What does this fold into?
Amino acid sequence: MSEDPHGGHDGSLDYHRRMLGDPHRVDAYERAIRALVKPGDVVLDVGAGAGLLSLLAARRGARVHAVESMPIAAVMERLVNDNGLADRVAIHRADLRRIAPVEPVDLVVSDFMGRFVADDMMLDAMRAGLRWLAPGGRACPASIDLRLAPVALHHLAALDVFEAPVAGFDLSALAPVAQACTYPIALAPDALLAPAALHATVRPGDGPAAFVGEHRFTVTRPGRLRGLAGWFEAHLAPGVVLATGPGVESHWDQLLFPLPAAHVDAGDVVTVRLWLDDADQAVWVWRWEGELRRAAAAPLPFALASVGRLAAGAPREVPRLTHGALDAFNEAGGAAFARGDYAAAAAAFTDAVRGLGPEHDDLAPLLWENLGLAFVLGGRPADAIGPLLRALDGDPASREQSARLLVDACFGCGRGRDAARYLAAYEARFGPHPRTR
It folds into this structure.
C-alpha cells in the first residue's frame, strides 16, 4: 500500500499539472525526443495523458498515435488542436492492453514511471505498447536503474504521530499500520547513511519479477535510521538521463520504505531483500526483509510489506488518575528530569495525562507542560506541540514556560509560520524570547 495521494496512474488534472510543471522531466523528454525522432517516423505514446510527449514528437516531424484511457484524453485533444498538430497526432481513447496495433512504429515513448517505477501501475501498458514496435524500433526510456539507500530522518510525521499520545489517547496501534506503507519523501543528499546501491535495472516490457534485489549497506555516519529510500535513473536516449535522487526537486521525489527506528553508528550494517509481490494481480505489494546489525546492540530483524492492515486487539483498562498515582508520576518524572533521562520523563507524564478526568482540570496544564518539556528536551519537538497547546488551553500567553517552549518546538520541527505567530504572542506578553535576545 502507498500512502501517496498521487500514487498509481491518475487521470486528474492536478496529477498532470505536476508532471507538466516539472522542468527536469520536460527538459529530459524534450532532449530525448529530439535525439530519437526524425521526420517521417511513426511514434506510439503510451499513456499519453495531456499529450506533451506526443506534441514533442509531432513537432519533430513524426506521426503519433497517442493512447490514453483516462478522461484527460479530452484535454489532450484540445491541446493538440490548439497547437496546430491535429493532422499529426491520432488520439485513441482506449486501454492499450485491449487494442490491436494500428501500424508498426519506430519509437514507443512513455512516462510510465512512479517514484520507484512500478508504483504507477503501468508496466502492463508499456509491455502492450511494445507489440507495436517495428523490427529495429526503439523504446524511450530504454532502461531504468533503480537505486536504494538507507536514510536517516530525525522526524517522520507519517510515523511519529503515533509515538506520542494524541489528546492523551494511546494511538500506538496505528504505528505498525503506518509502517506497512510506502511514503513519498523529498530527501537531501546528506540524509543517506550509506552509498546508494543499484537495486535493479528494469527495461520496458519487464514485469514485477525484475524488481527484486538484495543488498548489504555499511553505515558511514551516525544517525537515526528510519527507512530505505528508492529512486530511479531513466535512460531516455543516449546521453539523456532523467534522475530523481535526493537533492533533485522533481514531482517524483523519492519513495520511502520504512524500517524500525534505530540509532546507528559508522560500521553498522543493514542487510535487506526488497521485491515486488504480484501474487494478487489486482494489488501489487512491496516486501522488504532483513536485519540491522549494530556493534552496540542486539541484531534487529525486520520483515515488512506495504499492506497497511490493522490487527485486532483486546480491550484494556486504563485506570483513572488518583492523587497517589499523580504523586508517583510526578516523582518519577522529576527524578527522570534530574538525571537527564527525558525518555523516562516523557513516559511518566504520558501515563499521567492518560488518566486525567474532569476532576483533574486544575492539575492538567502542569502535567501537559511537563510532558511537552520532556519531549522538547528529548529532541522530539513535533511531539511537544500538542501537549504544550493543551497546557496553554487556548491562550498562547497564559503560561510563560509553555509559551516559550511552544515557540522552540515549532521552530525545531520546521513549522515556521506557527513559530512566528507564537513568538509574537509570547513577546507581546512576556517580552523578548530567549532565541531573539
About this structure: Residues 1-10 have pLDDT under 50 and may be disordered. Residues 13-140 form a domain with the Rossmann fold fold (CATH 3.40.50.150). DSSP finds 13 helices and 15 strands in the chain.
